[in-house]
Amino acid sequence: MVGTKRYRNANYVLKALAAHEMHAYQAFQQQSGLEPVVSRILWGRGIRSVQAVLDLQRNDQTLSRPYELPDMGELVALLRTARRRQQHVRVYGDYDADGVTATAVMVRGLQWAGFEHVDYYIPNRFDEGYGLHADAVDLAVQAGVDVMVTVDCGSSSPDAAQLARQKGLTLAITDHHALPLQLPDVPALVNPERMAQPNRLSGAGVALQVVRAMLDDEVPDWFYAVAAIGTVADVVPLRGDNRLIVRKGLQALQKGVCVGVDVLLGDRIKDRQQIVADDLAFFVGPHLNASGRMGDARPAVALLLAESREEASHWAQDLKARNQLRREIEKDLVNQALNQVPLDGSGQVPGFVVVAGDYWHHGVIGIVASRLKDRLKRPVAVIGWDGETGKGSARSVEGLDLFQHLWKHRDVFLKLGGHRGACGFSLSKQDPYRLSQIFSEALPEDVVRQQFVGTAVDAVVDASELTPRAVEQLLALEPYGHHFERPRLAVHGVVDGWRTMGSDAAHLSLTLVNHPYRVVAFGQAQMAQTLVEDGPVEFIGSLMLNQFQGKKTAQWQVEEFVGVAAGRKSWRQAVRFEAVTKPLSGRVLYIVNSTREQKAWASQLGAQAWYHYWPDGAWVGHETAVQNQEMVAIVVNQWDRWPRLFHWADHIVWLTAPVHHMALRTASALLKEPAGVMWISPDMAPEPVIGKARRLYPTREKLARLWKAWERGQAPLLIGGRVFHELGFQRGCKPAERRALSFSPAYQRAQQHWRAIEQDWQKPLKDWE
């Protein structure tokens, strides 16, 4: 009786909350005048008043006081003394985009404040590595430097600070990275991480605050323009000060105040009024990064400090050449790294993936780690060995403080630095698989489960809902960035037409019926093999502004197609409704209903040559190898992520009843045309499939029970965990802080799937359409 009472009470609360919130939401939508899809997105993000919407677009706000940062007063006093004494000041920076923009801001700021002897130094990534080193202190002393100010680094350099003190070099540190146990002993350590509630500024943002303090907030627009680039490039939360820096910086860039950026963008943007944050994230930032990744970051700083178009043109061409070389090296290393993704004895990919290779380019391993993290939905570290030692770069996923996690295993490293989202390190040569095992220990449960719950979206929509007015309102919410991400939507549509594009035909462009916006999938040209005219398609993507021939238009940028896109329109033509009674030749793909069945069939088929089994959907990096085999048997769990082995199988054998007709369409995309055959026994019992669907797909009643279990400390069902996350549920939160189920995209999609199951299984499998 106690359990029943808890269940009924919890269910009642959820229903009451839904009714209460829907009334509040409808009032918000009416008062704001937003299109339904836009108001749903903002409401789901906790933006629930007209004033909150207006605040997103306000231009009259000011940054927080610079002196709120620790030691800012000490730093300003130190610098003003140096100026009065006409001392030689050196800015010591870092080689990434945030580091070079912070360097430029600090150098120009000191010059603007009246310093006559200012220079800068950025270490070489390969010869010196990240951070402040003893050699840099010696070089500064030899050059007659009196005061050295770091930007975007220095918090983890107590030894260098001690050496500077011994040699009479005044050292001040400005940084934003995580703090080590032992802080450097310096007159001023300006790092927002020292605050009780840290202001998550980038290195360039911290440098901007120093300049504001030095100039009593009389800061020209140029400083905001350059700081905005570092803020976007370093992926700091785009809230508060950071959002304001980027907004003001974009306005400044649209005025052309930074000659170097103006020239670098060149033909990409004919009308500088159209510059948006994406241009900084995907073009300007990577070009600035490429300089340091290829060895010498000084050209990037020189571009930002250029005062004429002639000077800027020289440095812009240099950066473009470096970036092209970086892209070529990156593409090669990504392929090598994917082919080294480790599997344990049961075929599972570790929760934390470590891959390594001899002489992998240290300048691009960070990008490679980011690419693998996105593909595998796990934290990833990539190491390049150079003899008996190596340098590595790691990238995190949501919910994992990467620096703190790796710090628990600090005995593995020779040196470790970074923050929540990214870390760099050096270490002695060792087995990367062993490192994968070590780093996979004690991962937070939410991090481990991320790989299974699918991609989080803001809303599930039909393409017809994205009206021009809705698109205009979404674009008006710029700038987007970390912690105010560009809305990610699951879009249903009907295919009108498609083509591949790009010099190597690697990209896909398609149009949808009765939808004015083009859909582009970069690097996914193979998906064209699954599309059919007038056939359904579902993808997860974001609306972006596309710049072409001086014009900007909205278009969809696809992150991933749901399932395997549409598959054959007439999948029934390939089906034989009969059980397989004889051995099959050629490539065979078997489909089962659970991981347990998958392992059982793996045992039976293990004697066959070239058998492959990846139970948790970790096909990434292995699909090319499978395509090249002559005879391969593969077992797929229909509830898992499908491999993209298009037109690969001679036969597909259903060893379980399909969940609904879309599963058959998805499977058909993997079948050879026109001779491939899909075998389905018409007598298969649907109960195991429907029973599993009932367990996996949440109902309101089931979520009420899961919520009570979660509050008792038990882990919820996977889909339940995603729903709770999307609704902002937290253990012990007040009812008023919870959100209605109708605002969970995961819940919406689960209900859509369940309706498809109910509709299909109302008739015999042979009669499905």
From TrEMBL:
The keyword Protein transport does not apply. Residues 353-435 form the DHHA1 domain. InterPro entries: DDH_dom, DHH_sf, DHHA1_dom, RecJ, RecJ_OB, SSDNA_exonuclease_RecJ. Residues 457-559 form the RecJ OB domain. Keywords: Exonuclease, Hydrolase, Nuclease. GO terms for molecular function: exonuclease activity. Residues 89-214 form the DDH domain. NCBIfam families: recJ (TIGR00644). Belongs to the RecJ family. This is Single-stranded-DNA-specific exonuclease RecJ. It comes from Sulfobacillus thermotolerans. The lineage of its organism: Bacteria, Bacillati, Bacillota, Clostridia, Eubacteriales.
